[in-house]
Design goal:
This protein has nine helices and four strands; from the N terminus they run βαββαβααααααα.
């Protein structure tokens, strides 16, 4: 069966996951983490992709991003992937592939899932057991949204602005969201949608999204399609 093309639509937030081949480490030290942040910054600007959140784990990373064009996100990810592999192999004296195939991504409904996806990304190190709190992990966008540092590669989404009328109010409201965490159902939905490529949102959102692309955006319902009614000759 032919592989579905990625679902990529301009103006919508996308949850992106890129993993290391065979779960191998893709960041070995501070210099590696810093190198890919530079590439993210350069390529997000070059290809007109607004980056709202990220986390860099040892063997994978997550992004939440809104492309301005049809090809912006694929072009950004291709450029980062190629440049980082060249850098990593040269620096660490290795050859061959680094990534587990192509990156995974899908479109999410902003009003329902964007802030949840930011929380999901921020809490990744906590779920992995490598940080007690999201604020303890240095390689994510979490500190920026809490006002603890300024991260120039990030673009504020309108839904974050709506959390409060002042920076302090927005930071406090977002900190409360992270503190509350996510339920198992929402965690699974955010993970599986990105890995499968199916859009994540309410039925009305998915239906409207389908009008914008010939690519199927949701998994077909199980079972055979209904049989047509028999014709009756008069």
């Amino acid at each position: 069966m032919a592989r579905l093309p990625r679902l990529t639509l301009p103006g919508f937030p996308h949850h992106v996951i890129q993993r290391g081949n065979n779960r191998q480490a893709i960041f070995l030290d501070r210099a590696d983490f810093e190198a890919i942040l530079v590439l993210l910054d350069e390529n997000a600007r070059k290809f007109q992709v607004a980056l709202h959140a990220y986390v860099l784990m040892d063997n994978h990373f997550h992004l939440l991003a809104t492309p301005a064009t049809d090809e912006g996100l694929p072009q950004m990810m291709q450029s980062i992937g190629r440049s980082y592999v060249r850098y990593f192999n040269q620096r660490h004296g290795r050859t061959g592939t680094l990534w587990e195939g192509r990156y995974r991504s899908t479109v999410i409904e902003a009003e329902r899932h964007l802030l949840a996806c930011m929380v999901y990304i921020d809490l990744n190190p906590v779920r992995a057991g490598i940080a007690a709190r999201a604020a303890d992990y240095p390689w994510s966008s979490h500190a920026h949204w809490l006002g603890l540092r300024t991260d120039k590669l990030l673009t504020t989404h309108a839904l974050y602005w709506a959390l409060g009328n002042t920076p302090f109010a927005r930071e406090a409201a977002y900190a409360a969201l992270v503190q509350s965490g996510l339920g198992d159902t929402q965690l699974q939905a955010l993970t599986q949608s990105a890995l499968s490529g199916w859009a994540l949102g309410e039925p009305d959102f998915v239906a409207e999204l389908q009008k914008l692309t010939p690519r199927r955006v949701a998994k077909a319902k199980p079972g055979r399609p209904p049989m047509p009614a028999p014709s009756i000759e008069l």
